[in-house]
Design a protein that fits this description.
This protein has about 100 residues and is mainly β. It is about 10% helix and about 30% strand. The protein has one domain (about 1-50, about 70-104). Bound molecules: zinc ion (2 copies).
Length: about 100
């Protein structure tokens, strides 16, 4: 068995985003962006749906706020493995990190 089952811990290392971005698949969905890749902490494949919040504004014309560059999504580990100490209403190993979302 080579599976690593770390204990649940809400941690974020500066390297997580980079590690994840190097090997993740980004798919646009109707509501946001889906990230698929390996969790940099527990190395388990997972997907995360990031919902764009700024699209809630109504289409009221040119005064609608522009979407700036460098939108950041916060990704949480949602791997299906069980980790010791995961709260009942949580999933994954607790790792989280930020990803730049390219604005068009
Ligand atoms: Zn995990
Ligand atoms: Zn994880």
């Amino acid at each position: 068995m080579t599976e690593q089952c770390k204990e649940y811990a809400e941690v974020s290392l500066a390297t997580y985003g980079e590690t994840f971005a190097a090997d993740c698949e980004v798919t646009e969905t109707s509501r946001g962006i889906r990230f698929a890749g390996k969790c940099p902490r527990c190395s388990t494949f997972m997907t995360y749906d990031w919902v764009e919040t700024y699209t809630r504004t109504t289409h009221s014309g040119p005064s609608a706020p522009a979407v700036g560059d460098g939108e950041q999504a916060v990704i949480l580990c949602t791997c299906p493995k069980s980790h010791e100490g995961t709260p009942p209403d949580e999933e994954g190993c607790g790792a989280y990190w930020r990803m730049e979302v390219a604005a068009e």
